[in-house]
Amino acid sequence: MIRIENLTKRFKKLQALGDINALFNKGQVISLIGPNGSGKTTLIKSILGMVKPDSGCIYVDTKPINGDPSYRSQIGYMPQIGHYPDNMKVGHLFNMMKNIRKVSDAALDTDLLVKFNLVSIFDKPMRTLSGGTRQKVSAALAFYFNPDILILDEPTAGLDPLSSEILKEKIIEEKKKNKLILITSHILSDLDELTTHVMYLQEGKMIFLKDIGTLRQETGQDRLGKAIARIMRDGKKDALWIDEVLAVKETGITD
Amino acid sequence: MLKLSRYVLYDIIRNKVIIAYSLFLFIVSFSLFQLEENDSKAILSLLNIVLIVVPLISMIFTTIHYYNSYEFIELMLAQPLSRSGILLSEYTGVALSLLSAFFFGVGVPVLLFAFDETGLALLFAGGALTLVFTSIAFLASVKARDKARGIGSALLLWFYFALIYDGLVLLILFSFSEYPMEKFTLLLSALNPIDLGRIFIMLKMDVSALMGYTGALYKDFFGSGTGIIFTVGIMLLWIVLPLWWALNAFKRKDL
Amino acid sequence: MRNILIVLLLLVICNVSANTVVVGKNSSIKTLRQGIAVAKDGDTVLLTKGTYKEGNIIINKSIHLIGVYAPVLDGDHKNEILTLTGKNIVIKGIHFTNAGYSSLNDFAAIKVIDATRIIIENNTINNASFAIHISNATYTTVRNNIISGTHKSEHLSGNGIHLWKCENAMIEGNSVRGHRDGIYFEFVTTSTIQNNTSELNIRYGLHFMFSHNDIYLYNTFRNNGAGVAVMYSKSVRMENNVFDKNWGASAYGILLKDISNSHIRNNKFIKNTVAIHMEGSSRIEVSSNFFQGNGWALKVQASCDDNTFHHNNFNGNSFDVATNGTMTLNRFYNNYWDKYDGYDMNKDGMGDVPYHPVSMYAMVVEQNPTTLMLMRSFMVSLLDKAEKAIPGLTPENLVDNKPMLKPNKL
Known about the structure:
The complex is a heterotrimer.
Chain A: E1 2-11, E2 14-24, E3 29-33, H1 40-48, E4 55-60, E5 63-64, E6 75-78, H2 90-101, H3 111-115, H4 131-144, E7 149-153, H5 161-176, E8 180-184, H6 188-192, E9 197-202, E10 205-211, H7 212-219, H8 224-235, H9 239-254
Parallel strand pairs in A: 3-8, 3-9, 6-7, 7-8
Antiparallel strand pairs in A: 1-2, 1-4, 4-5, 9-10
Chain B: H1 2-13, H2 16-35, H3 39-68, H4 70-77, H5 83-113, H6 117-143, H7 147-175, H8 182-190, H9 193-204, H10 212-223, H11 225-252
Helix pairs in contact in B: 1-5, 2-3, 2-5, 3-5, 3-6, 3-7, 3-9, 5-6, 5-11, 6-7, 6-9, 6-11, 9-11, 10-11
Chain C: H1 2-15, E1 20-23, H2 32-38, E2 44-47, E3 51-52, E4 57-59, E5 64-67, E6 72-74, E7 82-92, E8 95-97, E9 108-121, E10 124-126, E11 130-138, E12 141-143, E13 146-148, E14 161-167, E15 170-172, E16 175-177, E17 183-189, E18 192-194, E19 197-199, E20 204-209, E21 215-217, E22 220-222, E23 227-234, E24 237-239, E25 242-244, E26 252-265, E27 268-270, E28 274-279, E29 282-287, E30 290-292, E31 296-300, E32 305-310, E33 313-315, E34 319-322, E35 329-333, E36 336-337, H3 360-367, H4 378-389
Parallel strand pairs in C: 1-2, 2-5, 3-6, 4-7, 5-7, 6-8, 7-9, 8-10, 9-11, 9-12, 10-13, 11-14, 12-15, 13-16, 14-17, 15-18, 16-19, 17-20, 18-21, 19-22, 20-23, 21-24, 22-25, 23-26, 24-26, 25-27, 26-28, 26-29, 27-30, 28-31, 29-32, 30-33, 31-34, 32-35, 33-36
Transmembrane segments (chain B): 12-33, 45-67, 88-115, 121-142, 154-176, 228-247
GO cellular component, one term (chain B): plasma membrane
Keywords (chain B): Membrane, Transmembrane, Transmembrane helix
């Protein structure tokens, strides 16, 4: 569904992406994992066409993405931090997106709108919303048009545990509908129950892309966090970061 | 694209800055017409507003708006919309709101008190300068890396067109005072939209008599059909070229 | 009714000593030429209604030629219509039209040569190159005539009222338009020009040269190609005139060149390119004038000295005073300048801070006129402000030490 060939991007001195090759298919939930600055967001933005790669190419449904923006109608994107026009009301925002996407009301997925109870704040201007509520709006927007591909950048960050659960359930539901879902998250425990594949990036390089079953088998670890930690320990790479991951993971458990 | 402009426009119109700007223009123009004993003196004072304040506010407002809607632009980029479409609808929204503020603030008093050729020339120049400096500000914003640089370069550009350029002209005229410079000054006036607007209005005020040979030449030129086409054409170039440049830069930009 | 009036008029005139000759369709004398021929000194020739085309008619007797119901003397575009010489001639109430044009002779509708005590009044003259041409005459009166020219180009057109080498002339209440110069004076002394309106002339409304001890009062000069020129003369009094809209690349309210010992008082200068341009002039008193909306109110060249400017009001002029030198020997005091922003601590109505009426930009423009393309730009106003704070270029002694805070009552 998405094919990435020899993708390279440099920001001045920083090698953001170095020769990435990957293939993502329907029904997969890909977890993008890596330390800060490893190129996760750059990769996502490249797929969305926000970052123009220096070389290489991305195909969505076998079509290269440069030029025609229409491929994005298949993609739902939830950004890390959603900023919206200050004076726009929530209802307006959904209306506007509907206008832009030109999707009939019957085809809309209002599941999250209902579950997050966003309809009740439809007449509130965006600037009055808290960060968490904005995240809910972003999430609802990403699923609103029932896209074949979902790209979620730190989806659960800033959400309360209840909303976080709702979102996770929604992701699982969409996974069952045979959609392609790309997730980045620091909270590996969140990904545990969702993910089918793990793509691990470091310093702009793809270290591996494996399905979770293989990963568990290779490492003998059931939990994703530990599995990755094991791999990294074995590879003796960036051991410091692994400790960081584990620390995060542990706080995730105590939550 | 127009749909998007509608939302941008809607967002800006509700913005207090643009309301304050139009009220400021309205109060200043209205009181000028009330206070000055004759309308042509009021037009002269308005001339300064049109030549200095309108470009300044247009530049600053556009730049700040651009950076404030950066995330909105990002959101739009994730939708099936082309980049030039997004930037052009931003431009249309900003330009339309600034234009309406100008035509409300200055246009209404002028039409009420000084509805003649000079008044219309003033409105034409003001409208054109609004569009030109919105265009230039878009270029500065797209080219600059961050908000501070963006606003800084917008201010510098304004300072250049409003003041420094005329200083350079003075310098040139004195350095080459032995040569016939009249025709050359026509070219010089085309290289600065503020100067072009000023000369265009001044000739409608019939100041040309003061300018001796230069005035006669200008009067001949700007009074003729060619001169009007020249003025409108150069103004259009000043609107289109920076915008075109901004569009090209925006298309290649990583967001 | 008309006929009765004429008869009554004739009776009245007949009762006076002199004879009256009636010329017209209904009279035994059909042509003006015949009428003049039979008239004797002191007689009155009445020209009744009708159009007369008789070529050039010469009057050299002391007769009164009076038109009744505006008879028309038509020059047929070929001839000078009337030529007067001698003394005590009156021409009154006649409509002159289509006087001829010649590039060799100054053909006129009415020409006066070598004459004294001539009165030309209440006539209408149109389509003439020269309308009234007077040379070498004394005690001439030209009064209440309405003169309109052809608006042709400068060299094809003549002057409205042209005086050359005259004394004690009185030009009064005339309206002149569409000629080369509205009123032209050369070598005319001790004469008066008053209550005339001279407008829309191709060159000057009033052109005045080598004419001493003259007065002009209550005239209006409007919309003339080059305004009014007063040159090479002494002791001229110019009072209560209006100089209005003399607007063009080289138009002046008054152009003064080599004038001395004169007065310019109580005039109004409104919307002229240059209200008063002075060169080579000395001992002129310019007082109680009103300058409004002119490009330059005063251009005082460095060749002028010992002039005084006081109790004038300057309002809304682009430049108040311009000069081309750095030294000035003229005095300014008690003028009202609308651009003055000083204060008056002792409440005597005069500002405590001197006013320098020459702006920095005025000096710049004087040196390099092309810089006028920068007029009303932000940079120019900054330049002027800076020069006010730290004077350097503007002439230091061109200053009004006692500027008025409120406009002078005029």
